[in-house]
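Action item from last meeting closed. Structure (282 res):
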């Protein structure tokens, strides 16, 4: 997320490697999804919404948030200014953008038979982990429904603590789906968990320009990703989501900057605690 932190502090957990943007070969189609999340389960009517892209070909796909580049750039410039002037970095000025979905998920099949998960949403740290197929045991149904103009079939699965209902269309044959979903015979049009905490809904589909090359959206200079396990990533994610200011303060412990939350008048505010409602419980 903050490239300067990564360069200066070189914070890592296990095995840190430098990665520039990952080129994935030619893409064919882009599906655009609305992703709705109930962040706080005690306030189910308050929903966070992101727009995510799924770009795919016959052998690979990448799922990412195109708006994340802007959020990273704004946060980086503000942090750089605070470090240069040895002043306080106001987390409140970027909190909304930094809590947006920064996940990039890459499927490559049949070459690697695994997915690679990248994230920069952890302040001061960037992580990646890999998981092998198959991840999902699908229960296929003959039930059909027309959604967004597509004739869809239903499938269900339980994965890491959540039960999912997924509607896919055979009109667009592909094994690649939103998020980590993989292995259905057609494009996912609608997916939601049984608690309605997470919903993925197809907004539109377009053909990518001739010669378009899919890649992760981490561009420019290499970024240091700590390669960890999924289990350890979930531990880090919980710490970050529940207390992002504390997480960032720990990452910047030796840097000439102090992290605080301030109101519009510049007065320091108590450090908030945020709810943790992850898409995976396990």
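Sequence:
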């Amino acid at each position: 997320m903050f490239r300067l932190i990564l360069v200066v502090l070189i914070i890592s957990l296990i095995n840190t490697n430098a990665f520039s943007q990952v080129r994935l070969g030619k893409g064919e189609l882009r599906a655009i999804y609305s992703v709705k999340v109930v962040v706080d389960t005690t306030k189910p009517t308050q929903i966070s919404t992101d727009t995510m892209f799924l770009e795919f070909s016959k052998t690979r796909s990448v799922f990412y948030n195109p708006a994340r580049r802007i959020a990273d750039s704004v946060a980086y410039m503000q942090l750089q200014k605070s470090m240069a002037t040895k002043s306080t970095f106001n987390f409140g000025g970027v909190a909304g953008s930094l809590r947006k979905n920064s996940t990039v998920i890459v499927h490559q099949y049949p070459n690697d038979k695994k997915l690679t998960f990248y994230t920069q949403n952890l302040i001061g740290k960037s992580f990646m982990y890999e998981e092998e197929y198959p991840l999902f045991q699908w229960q296929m149904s003959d039930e059909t429904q027309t959604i967004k103009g597509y004739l869809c079939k239903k499938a269900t699965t339980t994965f890491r603590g959540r039960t999912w209902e997924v509607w896919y269309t055979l009109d667009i044959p592909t094994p690649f789906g939103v998020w980590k979903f993989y292995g259905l015979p057609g494009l996912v049009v609608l997916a939601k968990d049984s608690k309605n905490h997470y919903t993925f809904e197809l907004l539109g589909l377009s053909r990518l320009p001739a010669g378009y090359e899919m890649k992760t959206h981490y561009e420019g200079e290499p970024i240091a990703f700590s390669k960890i396990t999924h289990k350890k990533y979930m531990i880090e994610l919980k710490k970050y989501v529940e207390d992002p200011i504390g997480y960032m303060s720990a990452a910047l412990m030796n840097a000439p900057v102090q992290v605080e939350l301030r109101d519009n008048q510049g007065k320091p505010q108590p450090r908030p605690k945020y709810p943790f409602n992850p898409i995976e419980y396990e």
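Note appended to the action item: Residues 3-260 form one domain.
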